[in-house]
Structure formats: C-alpha cells, structure tokens
Design brief:
Blueprint (H helix, E strand, L loop, with lengths): L10 H17 L6 H4 L5 H17 L4 E7 L3 H7 L5 E6 L9 E3 L7 E10 L9 H6 L1 E11 L10 H6 L4 E6 L15 E6 L2 E7 L7 H14 L9 E3 L7 E2 L5 E6 L3 E8 L1
Parallel strand pairs: 1-9, 3-12
Antiparallel strand pairs: 1-2, 4-5, 4-9, 4-10, 5-6, 7-8, 7-11, 11-12
The chain binds 2-oxoadipic acid (OOG) and magnesium ion.
Magnesium ion binds next to strand 1, strand 4 and strand 5.
Length: 268
C-alpha cells in the first residue's frame, strides 16, 4: 500500500482532528466518524492525524513500545466492511498483564481479538519481505488485543479508523515465546472462548497468508510515514478471527496451538 493520495488539510486542521480523537479516547465518549465532517479526508491525512495523536501521548510521558497491524484477515475485513489493512501505534500505558482483570469503565464498546505478536531483534525499514521480517524477529508470542472504536456504533471507514489509531485500546501479551522458525505460523490454530463457549476459531494463515506478511506491510506503511521499526519493538500482526464484544463479568480465553493460552476477565 502506498500513501500517494494528496494531502489536503493544513497542520491546524490535523491538530484539531487529533484533539477530537484524543478527547474521545480519554473520556470514552463516542464521536461521529471524521469523514462525515471531512468527506475528502485522505489516507495520508488520516495517518497525519494518527501521528499527531502519537506525539501528544508521547508529550504526556507515554512510551511507544511497538505497533499493530489491523484489518489483515478476511474475517476482520468482513466484520468491519473495510478491505485495506492499516497500522496503529502501541504505548506502554495500553499494556495489561495476562490473567488479569481489565476494567471497561474507561472504554466505549470493547471487543477482543486473538493475534500473533512479533518481537524484533534488529531494525526494519523501507520496503521489506516477510522473510526479512522473520530474520529480524527475536521471538513470536500470542497476544490478545482489546479494541475500542471511538466512533458511534463501532462503524467507520478506513480513513476514520486510521485517524483513531486503528481502534487501539489495550493489549495483553501472554502464552509462550517461541523462535519464529520453530512453528509454521500459517498453521498455528487459535480457539477463542467467550465465557467458556467457543466463539471463534482460526489459523495464522488468515493473516495475509502468513502473519509475517502483516509485519512487512506495517514496515512499508511506517516507511511511507517516514518512520522505521526499531529493534526490540512489539508488533501485533492483526486479528486472526472476527473480534468478540465483551461486557463486565465476561471471561475470554484464547488457546493457541503450541504457544499456550491467555485468559482475561472484564470488570466495570
Ligand atoms: C480496527 C482495528 C482492527 C485487527 O487486528 O484487525 C484490528 C477495528 O476493527 O476496529 O486491530
Ligand atoms: Mg487487532
């Protein structure tokens, strides 16, 4: 994907949109999707809004520890009605430990996703292949992501969701860390259970054919933004299955083939 669309908004408009999204994130209050007010919002401008949001969080002392690819599987694209993958940033403040209780009072309408995460051991930049991603990977491990669109009804288009940092809210690394070449990541199966019932089933190949392809896509988008992926980054490849909506009192368990499992509960 290349961000070759024209930039149409000036820096003040970008800053205002970032502030609108940040307020919705901070106070867990839904807003109209941005393209209702800015129908010409380009993908490049949407990433400029995301960058302004990232700089604002960094100015408040949060640390960017990695990135996420999103909308990288057919089940996710079908669920959201968006057919182009995107990326978002992850900060230390979004991380929660496995087997913990996650409060929902500071979220609008949380949904949970099961993903494969990559932790890198060398820098990645420019346009890279999945093989180069694998060579730069220290280990892979399971992760849950709690997404929370700031847009009413969890309805958006590509530009709006990118400006909203791809719905990033919380992430939960867990399970077993394994060498990237130790398993065929295409055939790593996952069973996602919601209150003890099987809610979703999938395998790694759902994610662009191989989860490393999603990381390669992500590094390419970072390159378009003038960014690189430093060694030591935590990068999620995107949900393998459709996301599952949760409420206070719910329990989610994701069981990964050969990589262990992660359980979280949700509270008020
Ligand atoms: C956008 C974020 C998608 C994934 O893993 O596909 C995502 C959304 O569906 O709200 O994180
Ligand atoms: Mg995700």
């Amino acid at each position: 994907m290349s961000l070759d669309q024209n930039t149409v908004l000036d820096d003040i408009a970008i800053a205002r949109l970032a502030e609108r999204v940040e307020t919705a994130q901070t106070y867990a209050t839904p807003i109209r999707k941005l393209t209702l007010d800015y129908p010409d919002l380009s993908l490049r401008d949407a990433y400029r809004v995301q960058t302004a949001l990232r700089h604002s969080y960094e100015a408040r002392g949060q640390r960017v520890i990695g990135w996420k690819a999103g909308l990288t599987s057919k089940p996710k694209m079908a669920q959201m009605g968006v057919s182009t993958p995107g990326v978002g940033f992850l900060t230390d403040a979004m991380e929660r430990p496995a087997n913990s209780a996650i409060s929902t009072g500071d979220l609008i309408h949380p949904r949970v996703e099961a993903e494969i995460a990559f932790v890198t051991k060398s820098d990645l930049s420019g346009k890279v292949s999945a093989a180069e991603v694998m060579a730069a990977t220290d280990y892979v491990q399971p992760a849950l992501e709690v997404i929370d669109s700031r847009f009413s009804g969890f309805k958006f288009d590509l530009e709006s969701v990118i400006a909203d940092n791809s719905s990033s809210a919380r992430y939960i690394p867990g399970g077993r860390m394994v060498r990237p070449e130790a398993l065929d990541l295409r055939t790593v199966g996952v069973v996602l259970e919601h209150n003890g019932e099987i809610a979703q089933i999938g395998a790694g190949a759902e994610v662009l054919g191989h989860p490393a392809e999603a990381i390669a896509m992500l590094v390419g988008v970072l390159d378009d933004m003038g960014e690189t992926l430093p060694a030591g980054s935590f990068v999620m490849a995107g949900a393998i299955t459709a996301a599952v909506a949760v409420q206070p009192g719910d329990t989610i368990t994701a069981r990964f083939y050969e990589m262990g499992s992660i359980t979280v509960t949700f509270t008020d």
